[in-house]
Specification:
Chain lengths: 408, 861
């Protein structure tokens, strides 16, 4: 597991992108690159529209609208997801879920029956996080369970999707320590051996395969390797079948452990070990920023095609009218925007538009990824703690600006 | 004055089942089910007499058993109608009550043996047979007593009868029984258990805190926690410690050994006597839970008795039976100490009964109750206690009057809806209904399902991809729509941009009151102030009319727990609270939600009206777990209008009991769909269309009047619920129910082009395959019992050690609810999935547990 955000040296802000916001960011920048207008709401709800207003595409964390509420809910519940995969004859490692309240003893007995090492992870919520991928004995098992007993919001690596189920149960208490409710469940799975492969499936097609040094979300390792062109078609088909098993997902990432990525699938040689309704582009970004950028564009383009929207050719330099609403500390936010804009090499200006309404506006020109980052950061409260409730970027003609300033 | 011929006549009896608040009596955090028994009678001068008692059915401890005890209670109360009890003098009144109680005891015996006869023939097993033999042998050896059924229930009936008669005579219950001891000392035992050292340590610790001059015995309840040798050793050590002055000179050891070793009590007492005599200390071994009947006491006395007896009237079967036990024990040994104890989970009614018993006992060396007033001869009349409405009014689970009143809804307001499917839905729990309704409709349209939990199932036509549901999260709506709708500010901005009426508002930085004042001025007063990430209404101030009030609201927010947050100022909309349901592009249901209230009829008290209303809510699948609560909010509302639970409102007078419209807080739901103005419907549809991929939505709309055009009133949508509950409009308390679940599933069928029936099936024939931990846990018997109660026919069988198969044939509400409950199973079962498919109805009669499928099943659909 990793408690650290990605720390690759990069242009100022991009280094501070945490994995869980990567997908939304990539689609956001792809939209700007394709000359589309963008409205961003809190928690990465992204509305993308054509200049004529004839089309509107919407995303949550980079997931297109066509992914249904039922399907993302099932994808976030590992017990039900495993059941659906098994129903579709997709091989999964042996596993079972247990509750922290009454199931620890049974879970240990189960782990012993499977034989250590085993994998332990939360049974509900965001996928490919908080995975204990190599629990070697009962002592390590206890450490994993102790971590999972901590209320999720206090865990360093916990993330929660905007569509996740809300925890309504009362927390538990253990020797004066606040812990998760006794009904909180975790999954114990057999640790299968082989090469760890991350597939990205978009609209029924495998669009990326990364050979990972270790399971994503289990700590910083070496970046993976792009092996899309080298992966055996049978493994690609397995990833596609897995996504079909959870009906209603237009995008998904599938992690497969296989004896070898160039070999066909034979029994007991390949298992779906992880599955997410999110694209999980942080993995591809580690391979190369261009790869995740390109895949963000693939996701956007598929949706646009399905919607009958013809996209412009991508461009690396764009100009947008910028508009932000409901900013609590307007003066501070405008200063912070300008400073970050300058750091990122943007040009243009920002000004207070309506002090009473809390709106700021201006022009931003420069690389799409930097404009996208600035907006994502402002919505997420990561621009020196400043926050807006809405940001709008409308494409415009490029103007003449030397720097990025606060206009009065 | 000539007293002959004076009598009272019972004309009505009420049985009220309620659950005690957990930890309500301070002893344990458990919640108990009690029955309040209320007997109404006419006195000799036509005066109204009311007697109350409280029954404590406590399973094996009192010979009671759930539903059977309740049925027994209703049966006995039904027989009391028209009963005449003499009020000529105490003795004859007591004789008459005793006769009624003896008759009730006889009825209890008859009901118990009937129950044993009619119990479903459980499959025989060696274990069960051996257990039966062991029970018989233990009975013959005097280790267990003959069962006496429903003692906890009889206690309540008898108390109510004694109370009403005592009131008729104008005396206290104690005086009716005959005051003998006159007073008693309150006493509370230490709670011990296993381990000699642990119990000794508890005693020593308690001894340290005691006044050295106190002559009161130190009492510990060992709860049968020791084996006989350990118990003997504890007695020896306690005597030793008392002799050495480390413990008081008087110690009472209650029930040191288990029931089956109770014959050891005499030997233990002898040991204590022998060792203590020389040292001048008095250690008494007390018979507690092991001696509750005359038979058990006689057996103990025959062995030589013991030093003390703790009588619990609910275990003994009433006050009269308790008196008898004390008399018999004292006759055998005038030195025996008599204690009397209350059960856990007792209200003031049972408390009063035990106190009155204590002064009527020939001697009472200690009384254990949960109240602290001294025990002395009471003034009366009767128990001198009122109905414990404060304690139970919002916790009532059942209420039956005998004979049935001519007009059950004698309340002044409209008649609430009653839904016949409630009994099928209750086993699913308070939240189970919402997880079940969609599956019921899917099955009714011929789809097959697989259920994974109370909330999650998959439906399929076996042609297309299956549809996945969890609660009301469905394949019809997008993930994006939920993400947007669960953020109120995001929703507000999105809707405002779509031209839908929403309250104007925005977020401000903590402490930025200058900007907030300017903003309030711009959107114009009245406004609401609330924390940006609010919970449970903390720090919220509504209806702020000017800048002065706004500043006060800021102070109030600062002083609240959420005072360090950013905050929101928004337009206050004066309106009523509506939930309007949109499926696709249509408004399909609409309810008005109003705060919890009762409507007077000029006869009943607020408490009585509240009980009736909560009972009506219990017949509503959406509201049965959401009673009107008698909490601080309700007390505040009553206080505002100068009323109490005992006040009798005028006919038609509406008395508010809450200020929130939340149905969970006891609010009413009233169907208004047919009256909804088209402009309001249109605004709802526009709001839903503004959210990408939102196909099912509960729109929360504030409106002044739902029949008027939207532009002629203050109106604003304050929330969109993308995963709204289905039951609130499906089952309104008043007005026309709407088929929300059915419409929802039909829309799914349409959108995904599924192969399904045109018409909804009224009856179903289903085959269930239940997987998980479902064998060796009583699963089949559990299913059989429920099927029989639900009127569902079919069979059930074990397939292998992880799979059970069942066939259910019955009406759609019953059969589908049982299919949903199958994923819960009995206590020790852990089903992981239930797959339900349709079959041609096989020819079956009743519901049987079978070893092999009795016929080949033909799958359909």
């Amino acid at each position: 597991m990793s408690a650290e955000p990605l720390q690759k040296p990069d242009v100022a802000g991009l280094a501070r992108l945490t994995p869980e916001v990567r997908d939304g960011f990539e689609v956001h920048q792809a939209a700007l690159r394709r000359a589309l207008d963008v409205v961003l709401y809190p928690r990465q709800v992204l509305m993308v529209s054509s200049a004529d207003g004839g089309h509107e595409l919407s995303f949550i964390h980079g997931i297109p609208r066509a992914s249904t509420l039922g399907s993302v809910t099932y994808a976030q519940d590992k017990r039900m997801r495993r059941a659906l995969l098994e129903r579709a004859d997709v091989p999964v490692p042996k596993g079972a879920t247990f509750s922290v309240g009454r199931g620890i003893k049974e879970a240990k007995a189960f782990a012993a029956r499977l034989g250590y090492p085993v994998v332990v992870k939360p049974a509900m919520g965001d996928n490919a996080i908080e995975t204990f991928a190599d629990v070697r004995d009962e002592e390590q098992f206890d450490i994993a369970i102790d971590y999972l007993r901590t209320p999720p919001t206090e865990r360093p690596t916990f993330t929660r999707a905007a569509y996740a189920l809300t925890e309504l149960r009362e927390p538990g208490e253990e020797e004066g320590r606040v812990v998760v409710p006794p009904g909180y469940r975790f999954l114990v799975e057999e640790r299968v051996r082989g090469e760890y492969l991350r597939f990205l499936v978009v609209d029924g097609l495998v669009r990326s395969v990364v050979h990972c040094a270790r399971p994503p979300g289990t700590g910083l390792g070496q970046p993976g390797r792009d092996i899309l062109g080298e992966t055996h078609p049978a493994l690609q088909q397995l990833a596609i079948d897995a996504v079909r098993a959870v009906p209603g997902l237009v995008v998904a990432s599938v992690d497969i452990v296989a004896r070898g990525y160039q070999r066909p699938v034979s029994p007991d040689e390949a298992w779906v070990v992880e599955f997410s309704e999110r694209p999980g582009l942080a993995v591809q970004a580690e391979v190369a920023p261009e790869l995740s950028q390109q895949l963000g564009d693939v996701i956007l383009s598929h949706y646009a095609t399905a919607d009958g929207l013809e996209l412009d050719d991508p461009r690396d330099d764009v100009a947008v009218e910028f508009h932000a609403e409901a900013i609590p500390d307007l003066d501070g936010a405008v200063e912070a925007l300008a400073a970050a804009g300058r750091d990122l090499g943007l040009t243009g200006y920002v000004e207070i538009r309506d002090r009473v309404d809390g709106t700021a506006a201006g022009v931003m020109q420069g690389a799409p990824q930097h404009i996208a980052w600035l907006s994502e950061a402002l919505l997420d409260g990561k621009l020196g703690g400043h926050r807006a409730m809405l940001v709008e970027e409308r494409q415009r003609e490029r103007g003449e600006f030397d720097s990025f300033v606060v206009s009065s | 004055m000539n007293q002959s011929g004076r009598a009272l006549t019972v004309h009505r009896a009420h049985a009220i089942a309620y659950r005690t608040p957990p930890g309500g009596t301070g002893r344990s955090s458990q919640s108990f089910g009690n029955y309040l028994v209320k007997i109404e009678a006419g006195g000799p001068e036509g005066e109204r007499l009311v007697g109350i008692g409280e029954a404590h059915p406590r399973g094996g401890e009192t010979g009671d058993r759930g539903r059977d005890s309740w049925d027994f209670l209703l049966d006995v109360l039904g027989r009391l109608d028209g009963l005449s009890l003499p009020l000529t003098d105490r003795a004859s009144a007591l004789v008459a009550v005793r006769a009624v109680i003896e008759e009730a005891h006889a009825a209890a015996r008859a009901a118990a043996s009937e129950r044993a006869r009619s119990a479903p023939a459980a499959p025989t097993s060696l274990k069960r047979t051996v257990r039966g033999w062991a029970r018989q042998l233990a009975g013959r050896a005097g280790r267990i007593d003959d069962p006496i059924a429903f003692r906890g229930t009889l206690f309540g009936i008898e108390t109510a009868l004694l109370d009403v008669v005592a009131r008729g005579l104008g005396v206290s219950v104690a005086e009716l029984l005959g005051v003998r001891s006159g007073k008693a000392t309150l006493s509370t035992p230490l709670v011990g258990g296993s381990g000699i050292d642990r119990n000794l340590a508890l005693l020593r610790e308690a001894a340290v805190g005691r006044d050295g001059t106190s002559d009161e015995a130190l009492w510990i309840d060992l709860r049968g926690g020791l084996n006989p040798p350990d118990a003997a050793e504890l007695v020896r050590q306690v005597v030793g410690a008392a002799s050495a002055g480390e413990l008081p000179r008087h110690v009472v050891l209650e029930q040191p050994v288990r029931m089956r070793h109770r014959h050891q009590l005499t030997a233990l007492q002898r040991k204590a006597d022998d060792a203590g005599r020389k040292a001048g200390v008095e250690v008494r071994v007390m018979a507690g839970s092991s001696v509750w009947s005359r038979q058990g006491l006689d057996r103990l006395i025959a062995r030589g008795g013991c030093g003390a007896l703790n009588i619990r009237p609910a275990a003994a079967g009433g006050l009269l039976a308790s008196l008898e036990l004390a008399d018999v024990a004292l006759e055998a040994n005038p030195d025996v100490h008599i204690y009397v104890s209350q059960m856990e989970g007792a209200s003031a009614v049972a408390d009063a009964a035990v106190r009155q018993l204590a002064v009527a006992l020939p001697r009472a060396d200690g009384v254990r109750v949960d109240t602290t007033d001294p025990v002395s001869t009471p003034d009366g009349p009767g128990l001198d206690v009122g109905e414990p409405y404060e304690w139970m009014v919002d916790r009532i689970t059942d209420y039956v009057s005998q004979p049935t009143p001519a007009e059950p809804a004698a309340e002044g307001g409209p008649t609430p809806n009653v839904y016949t499917e409630v009994p099928f839905l209750q086993p699913l729990g308070p939240n189970g209904t919402k997880g079940h309704l969609l599956e019921r409709e899917a099955l009714a349209l011929g789809l097959s399902t697989t259920r994974f939990s109370k909330g999650a199932f998959v439906a399929t036509d076996n042609v297309h991809d299956p549809l996945v549901f969890k609660w009301s999260r469905s394949p019809m709506s997008s993930a994006v729509s939920l993400a947007l709708c669960t953020h109120k500010e995001a929703t507000r901005m999105r809707l405002a941009r779509a031209g839908v009426p929403v309250p104007k508002g925005r977020t401000f930085a903590n402490g930025d009151y200058t900007s907030a004042r300017a903003y309030a001025e711009r959107i114009s007063y009245p406004v609401v102030v609330k924390p940006a990430m609010g919970v449970r209404g903390i720090g919220v101030v509504a209806n702020i009319h000017d800048e002065h009030e706004l500043d006060l609201a800021f102070r109030q927010l600062e002083d609240s727990k959420l005072g360090s947050q950013d905050f929101i100022v928004e337009q206050h909309i004066t309106g009523r609270d509506y939930r309007i349901v949109v499926v696709g592009d249509d408004v399909i249901a609409a309810i008005l939600r109003e705060p919890a209230s009762v409507v007077g009829d000029g006869q009943h008290s607020i408490a009585e009206l509240l009980v009736r209303k909560n009972l009506a809510r219990r017949l509503n699948p959406h509201l049965w777990g959401r009673p009107i609560k008698y909490d601080d909010a309700a007390r505040y509302q009553l206080q505002r209008v100068g009323m109490t639970l005992d006040s009798v409102p005028e006919p038609g007078q509406r008395v508010l009991l809450s200020n929130t419209c939340s149905l969970s807080q006891g609010g009413d739901s009233i169907d208004v769909l047919d009256e909804l103005h088209p402009s309001i419907k249109e605004a709802c549809v526009r709001a839903v269309q503004a959210v990408p991929g939102l196909a099912f939505c509960g729109v929360d709309f504030l409106l002044e009047d739902h029949t008027k055009p939207i532009d002629e009133q203050q109106a604003g949508i304050c929330e969109l619920n993308a995963h709204a509950a289905i039951g609130n409009c499906e089952y309104p308390l008043y007005g026309k129910p709407r088929e929300v679940a059915r419409t929802f599933i039909q829309e799914c069928v349409r959108r995904f082009d599924l192969v399904a029936h045109e018409e909804r099936a009224e009856r179903l024939a289903l085959k269930l395959t239940i997987r998980g931990r479902v064998t060796g846990v009583g699963y089949r018997t559990w299913m059989q019992r429920r099927a029989e109660t639900f009127g569902v026919q079919g069979w059930i069988r074990n397939v292998n050690n992880r799979t059970v198969e069942a066939v259910l044939i019955g009406d759609t509400p019953a059969a589908s609810a049982l299919a949903a409950a199958a994923v819960l199973g009995p206590k020790n079962a852990l089903p992981t999935s239930v797959t339900t498919v349709h079959v041609e109805p096989p020819d079956v009669d009743g519901f049987e547990i079978v070893h092999r499928a009795p016929q080949e099943l033909v799958h359909v659909g």
